[in-house]
Amino acid sequence: MLTKRIIPCLDIKNGRTVKGVRFENIRDAGDPVELAKWYAEQGADELVFLDITATNEERKTFAELVRDIARHIDIPFTVGGGISAVADVEVLLMAGADKVSINSAAIRNPQLIEDLAKRFGSQCVTVAVDTKYTEVTGWKVYARAGTVETEHTTVDWTRQVVDLGAGEILLTSMNNDGTKAGFALDITRSVSEAVAVPVVASGGAGTMQHFADAFQIAHADAALAASLFHFRELSIPDLKQFLKAEGIAVRY
Length: 252
Description:
252 residues; alpha/beta; TIM Barrel; 10 helices
């Protein structure tokens, strides 16, 4: 049985870890290098590092910060933000990233997914999907850090990117992000059942039970959280012990 993964997410702005609610009201959460070291020691299975303003500011991800973080950890590390070309990924992998996450660039140029998969392998390519539900549109995909609604419905888009070579989907519900009210189980389950690659549930974690629900109800392969871990409201060892008691296979 494949173990379920627990993944802290470091949203980076101006070299600092930050966290908001529904992509707004950003506040400081600490030094990313120190947090990364702490999470590796705590037993996190992977880390995700997202340079959240790189795309909107039309600049590249901070490769030097990636290099600094990679020097201090021994767990897989995904990096996203500002990636728009194969050359960008080469820089980040050379800096120590294990995988890359693309979002707006994939929407703008789906061919990039195929190009990256062919050059580096699908296992290296995560497509991040920011999704939002309204009664009028249902679940739609958003670009540019959640500021621009696209024409894509969420399930159809995830199928398309997997067909192009994405090896993983990082699915963030904008409705749930930062609320601590639980993951968006309905759309997460729909995506998990629609694609044959791992799906990471993101947005809304607030309790240990929320993680169990993501795995048992939504069939996610991994669950990601930020503020819950950053502000020490929940420890990863305690969470893994709880999940194990619930009969969920986790890595120790």
